[in-house]
Amino acid sequence: MKYTILYQLDGKIKTLKVNSLENLPDNIIKIKDKKSLLTFDLNQNSKKEILDMFRQLSIMLNANLTLSVAVDLSLKTKQSKLIEEILSIIQSAITSGKPVDIALLKHKDTIGELSIQFLKLGIENGNIQQSLHSLVELLDEDMKTKIKFYDTMRYPLLLISSLVVSIMMIFIYVVPNFEYIFTMSQEEVPIATQILITLNTIVKEYYYLLLIVIIMISFLVYILYKKFTLYFHKFMILHIPIIKRVLKDYYFYRLFLLISIIVNSKYQFQIAIENSKNLIPNLYVKQLMQTIIIDIKNGISISSAFERTKLFDSLTIKLLYTAEHTTQYETILEDIAVYYKFKFQESLKLFSSYIEPVIIFCIALVVLWLMLAIMLPIWNMSSFLS
């Protein structure tokens, strides 16, 4: 794997491309790994394995064992190859004094940037027990939320899949049996039948061109998305009805849950925000979070910094204002996380209540069109014979 190293030298930012993480320069600012388009995670259960690994380490640390001893004991039990490799890297980093975030960089996609940040914070500040406990809590809650989202989307996706399969079966088995009769009929066939025959002809005779067009369009969309990711993310979070509400509530729930957990681990609010922004996959929201961090560093109050983004609702701003003037950050941040969790659940129900009728209506229209396209010529022929 190739890496791009950003580091400071003589007051200037320099870039270095390397193939390994050995013999790195001093004053490193950021390390980015260059991903291949063909790279993907084959193990669908890796996230659960990672969660189980951290849960096991957390239990051992709660029994007053050191992280080094806990990792050693974990390595002595039967683990998957992936978990053994990750534990070995953590143990090697602890022994050699190498930064754990750099050591685990090649597993960032599997273990998650959030997990690496929690390990780094815990080791550097000597509260690894609390950090791992908070990490397990966050990963467990995040997994439950995703499962709930997938459960909500399962039925709409099943409907769409059924519609696609049904249309394919009709084009393969039904239309060819009636096409000859329709084309030989002296009566003018209905417009629905003409559309059906035309589509069938295009699919049958020019399927390779359609496949090429689909691939080219997909590739073009991918290139445009990579080039204008920020604009795509901004459009999604601001302008798509219903979906923008689901995304906002989900992102802000994860955001304030993480901030709450980090603050409860006795970190400052500013440190919590700086480490929580990486949890948000939306670049536009992440950009606004960076603006909030800069505003706070410049002396602007927390509530004002959040309010200036014009992305958070008035209740969130009021609660943050209350936290500033009562210093009850831990309690109020937990309340905000619970508030957004409730909003996310409600917006997910609203999304489901809209998407399912829309899909069913679309299916009904397609079925009606197919029925008219096939049955109308038959009825006309029956009338003519009578």
Tags for this model:
mainly alpha, 3 domains, three-stranded antiparallel β-sheet, 3 strands
Q: Element order, helices and strands?
A: EEEHHHHHHHHHHHHHHHH
Number of strands: 3
> Which runs of at least 5 residues are low in confidence (pLDDT < 50)?
35-44
Number of domains: 3
| CA-based gyration radius | 28 Å
Helix content: over 70%
Proportion of beta-strand residues: 5-15%
Oligomer: single chain
- Major β-sheet annotation: 3 strands, antiparallel
* Arrangement of strands in the largest sheet: 2-1-3
Helix and strand composition category: mainly alpha
Please count the helical segments: 16
N→C terminal distance: 75 Å
The whole-number mean of residue pLDDT values reads 81
- Form type: elongated
Describe this structure in words.
Helices cover 75% and strands 6% of the residues. It is mainly alpha-helical and 386 residues long. The chain folds into 3 domains: 35 residues, no CATH class; 67 residues, no CATH class; 253 residues, no CATH class. It has a 3-stranded antiparallel sheet with strand order 2-1-3, with no helix packed on it. A hairpin with a 2-residue loop joins strand 1 and strand 2. Helix 8 packs across helix 16. About 3% of the residues have low confidence.
